[in-house]
Backbone:
């Protein structure tokens, strides 16, 4: 790492190191989402700067099958803009995906050209996990700031923490085996044991199952290859089993375990619907409505074969969420929104269409093939890289993995290490090379976009806390596609100024970006009712009843309007 720091590229690499250390820790109430937003802001701005550096100082670009597929997928993301209702979030999705691909290439180049070693990157993960662990203990044992699912750790939500542990636990174990310094060696082992304990406390089934299944597969693979059980991939599997038994009987966590067991005990119990009793689907119950989410997303894909636009899943899915039925997507109602399908393949397919989804699947297949080849040709260290990859990939089929900032950052590091190991063991094919890249000047718009994007989020949150109208104006000035700020502007005009026509105007602008938002339709119909626009209110109500047929609030409003019209 010393060579990297003393080279002419030291500033960017130091920035990369600082990001790795800060990303699992930072959170602030300056944003509506105090954990995700500041982490994404750091990730997006730093990766934007790395992208600019990479294109301006990279002398030669090699294109393999994988890089060509990435390029074609970026083109499909751009084409999906024609389907987008909120183009601002399409730009966010495209720029973030582009930056992520460049970050993988950036880390890979540092490994390939020996500017850093695999051991040094392992030490960086060790240091990041160490700082996270210290802050976690401080926040839980001293000041008690991590006390809910949404603030489970410095990383944030209980599931988002588990997303990162998929990667950290195997790589810390890898560091234990390849580390020469005894202090760092045993620190890695202690940290890994501590993180396994946090993982079990979190109760994240996808992460725990992903690690266990990946390790079982790798242990069997290694047994077939070497005709004996290897210590490397089996030790964390044993630790997870031991800690699960420990936490199952620990008094401090008995209530949490009891709640999870209740899911199993009520699987066969009937549920009441409006007309009859229907046996609850056991798989659906055990998977926290994942089956409903997947089925409804598939319906969405069938109706939108070209996708709904990059980053626009949240805005269109309520139409397919079957609200008010036993088959409803959870968290789609007046007060909550559902942002992603908890499956990375369905995420890409629903937003980019069938072709975009197939391209993404092909990329995953190629990466999986690389893992298999490194297992066949590689050393014991490759077994733990494969476990981290397998656990992360498995969990991405059940949760928002790759869509959360800390996991996304360490996933890029994992993929870069995988590519480096694959190319070290094989003679990878290069299709063609380019000495220069054109149109580099447009890259400056990427960090500028993200700066304006997060400034808008910041001012929107400040308006909520301080009720300063100037903040709301700034939020919309920096990002006219900030649908949250538009909704706040509509509410401000209605409740503070009692200007219902202007409030309806801003609601119309909001609904252009978020056409199936239940809350906005209810507010618009209510405001139209207050200024006696009964016919327009009924039209708004009918639009909502298309995808939310059982909404009591809107049905009561419709009844009142029809009663008034009869008089």
Residues:
């Amino acid at each position: 790492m010393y060579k990297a720091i003393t080279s002419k590229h030291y500033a960017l690499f130091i920035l990369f190191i600082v990001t790795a250390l800060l990303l699992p820790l930072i959170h602030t109430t300056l944003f509506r989402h105090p954990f995700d937003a500041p982490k994404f802001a750091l990730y997006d701005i730093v990766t934007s700067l790395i992208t600019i550096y990479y294109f301006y100082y990279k002398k030669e670009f090699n294109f393999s099958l994988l890089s060509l597929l990435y390029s074609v997928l970026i083109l499909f993301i751009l084409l999906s803009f024609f389907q987008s209702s909120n183009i601002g979030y399409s730009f966010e999705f495209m720029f973030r995906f582009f930056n992520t691909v460049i970050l993988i290439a950036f880390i890979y180049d540092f490994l390939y050209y020996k500017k850093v070693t695999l051991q040094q990157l392992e030490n960086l993960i060790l240091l990041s996990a160490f700082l996270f662990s210290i802050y976690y203990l401080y926040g839980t044992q001293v000041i008690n700031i991590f006390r809910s699912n949404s603030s489970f750790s410095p990383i944030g939500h209980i599931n988002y923490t588990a997303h990162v542990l998929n990667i950290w636990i195997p790589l810390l174990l890898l560091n234990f085996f390849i580390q020469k310094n005894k202090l760092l060696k045993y620190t890695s082992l202690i940290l890994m044991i501590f993180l396994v304990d946090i993982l079990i406390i979190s109760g994240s089934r996808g992460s725990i199952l992903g690690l266990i299944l990946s390790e079982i597969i790798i242990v069997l693979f290694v047994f077939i290859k070497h005709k004996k059980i290897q210590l490397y991939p089996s030790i964390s599997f044993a630790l997870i089993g031991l800690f699960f038994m420990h936490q199952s009987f620990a008094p401090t966590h008995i209530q949490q375990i009891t709640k999870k067991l209740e899911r199993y005990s009520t699987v066969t119990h009937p549920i009441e619907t409006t007309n009859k009793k229907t046996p609850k689907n056991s798989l659906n119950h055990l998977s926290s409505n994942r089956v409903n989410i997947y089925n409804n997303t598939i319906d969405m894909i069938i109706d939108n074969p070209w996708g709904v636009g990059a980053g626009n899943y949240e805005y269109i899915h309520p139409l397919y969420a079957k609200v008010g039925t036993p088959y409803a997507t959870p968290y789609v109602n007046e007060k909550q929104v559902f942002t992603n399908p908890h499956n990375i393949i369905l995420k890409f397919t629903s937003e980019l269409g069938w072709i975009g989804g197939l391209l993404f699947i092909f990329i995953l297949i190629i990466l999986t093939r690389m893992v298999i080849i490194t297992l066949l040709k590689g050393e014991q260290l490759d077994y733990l890289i494969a476990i981290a990859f397998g656990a992360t990939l498995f969990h991405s089929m059940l949760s928002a993995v790759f869509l959360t900032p800390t996991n996304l950052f360490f996933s890029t590091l994992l993929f870069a290490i995988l590519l480096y190991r694959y190319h070290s063991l094989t003679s990878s094919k290069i299709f063609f090379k380019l000495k220069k890249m054109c149109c580099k000047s447009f890259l400056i718009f990427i960090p500028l976009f993200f700066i304006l994007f997060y400034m808008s989020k910041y001012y929107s949150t400040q308006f909520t806390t301080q009720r300063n109208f100037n903040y709301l104006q700034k939020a919309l000035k920096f990002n006219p596609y900030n649908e949250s700020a538009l909704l706040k502007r509509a509410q401000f005009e209605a409740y503070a100024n009692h200007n219902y026509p202007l409030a309806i105007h801003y609601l119309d602008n909001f609904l252009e970006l978020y056409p199936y938002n239940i809350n906005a339709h209810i507010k618009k119909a209510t405001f139209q009712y207050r200024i006696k626009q009964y016919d327009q209110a009924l039209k708004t109500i009918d639009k909502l009843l298309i995808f939310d047929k059982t909404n009591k609030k809107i049905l009561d409003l419709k009844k009142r309007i029809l009663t008034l019209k009869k008089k």
About this structure: The two ends are 81 Å apart (CA to CA). The CA atoms of residues 111 and 117 lie 6 Å apart. The longest strand covers residues 61-63. The chain is about 70% helix and 0% strand.
